[in-house]
């Protein structure tokens, strides 16, 4: 039997969430989808009629006050009905092969998989492939896992534990580091299956927000000093060049 996949979309954007949902609707994955949209204090949920055209039911709720993407994703996991969980940020989108490829890579095992992505800088007008080599030891220095590419079995997610709301900018990195330290098999699938959109308004573009969270992340995991960097900065900063893969 083809497993149910829960898709969790935290959102603060009224405009791009439908682009994300449209990309879910294009998926070649033949199994049933359980789609959850969490409005992170941005507004009241859209009426259910706004989702009527989709070939799946969209469950939605609003968190007030705004609590951050980590808590929004955690709420989505609590609501999840699927055997597998796929995360998608509201300003990103999947390619049609995303769920079919990631579920095939997992082969119905208890683990997690992530893919490469095409990174778009909306203000500077460039895009490039985000491809980084992966080895578990790398996670003490940086993370190549864009959250919108991560698919994980629900059992494994709950065993590792939920996203840490005290370090929202690094909660995804924190989760994959905890997972690998617990022996969870984390696979990189060397395919681009998503578009990641980045701008100066993104949380990860504000060092004044990220630096204190990076410090808390380092203290939690007993890590040495590390550069504050976004996925976009990883594409050009020489410090990360050792892991970046050629086209």
From TrEMBL:
PANTHER family: GLYCOSYLTRANSFERASE, GLYCOSYLTRANSFERASE 2-LIKE DOMAIN-CONTAINING PROTEIN
Glycosyltransferase 2-like domain residues: 6-117
Identification of the protein by name: Glycosyltransferase 2-like domain-containing protein
Organism of origin: Sulfobacillus thermotolerans
Pfam families on file: Glycos_transf_2
The organism's place on the tree of life at top rank: Bacteria
SUPFAM superfamilies per record: Nucleotide-diphospho-sugar transferases
């Amino acid at each position: 039997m083809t497993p149910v996949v829960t898709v969790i979309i935290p959102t603060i954007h009224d405009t791009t969430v439908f682009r994300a949902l449209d990309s879910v609707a294009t998926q070649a994955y033949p199994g049933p989808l359980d789609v959850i949209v969490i409005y992170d204090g941005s507004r009241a949920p859209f009426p259910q009629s706004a989702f009527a055209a989709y070939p799946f039911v969209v469950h939605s709720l609003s968190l007030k006050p705004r609590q951050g993407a980590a808590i929004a994703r955690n709420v989505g996991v609590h609501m999840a009905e699927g055997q597998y969980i796929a995360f998608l940020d509201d300003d990103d989108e999947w390619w049609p092969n995303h769920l079919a490829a990631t579920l095939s890579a997992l082969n119905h095992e208890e683990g997690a998989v992530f893919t490469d992505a095409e990174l778009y800088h909306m203000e500077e007008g460039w895009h490039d492939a985000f491809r980084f080599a992966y080895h578990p030891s790398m996670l003490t220095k940086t993370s190549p896992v864009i959250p919108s590419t991560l698919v994980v079995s629900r059992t494994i997610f709950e065993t590792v534990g939920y996203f840490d709301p005290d370090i929202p900018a690094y909660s995804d990195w924190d989760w994959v580091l905890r997972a690998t330290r617990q022996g969870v098999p984390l696979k990189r699938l060397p395919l681009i299956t998503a578009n990641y959109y980045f701008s100066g308004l993104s949380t990860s573009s504000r060092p004044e927000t990220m630096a204190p969270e990076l410090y808390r992340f380092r203290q939690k995991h007993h890590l040495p000093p590390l550069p504050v960097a976004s996925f976009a900065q990883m594409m050009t900063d020489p410090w990360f060049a050792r892991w970046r893969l050629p086209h």
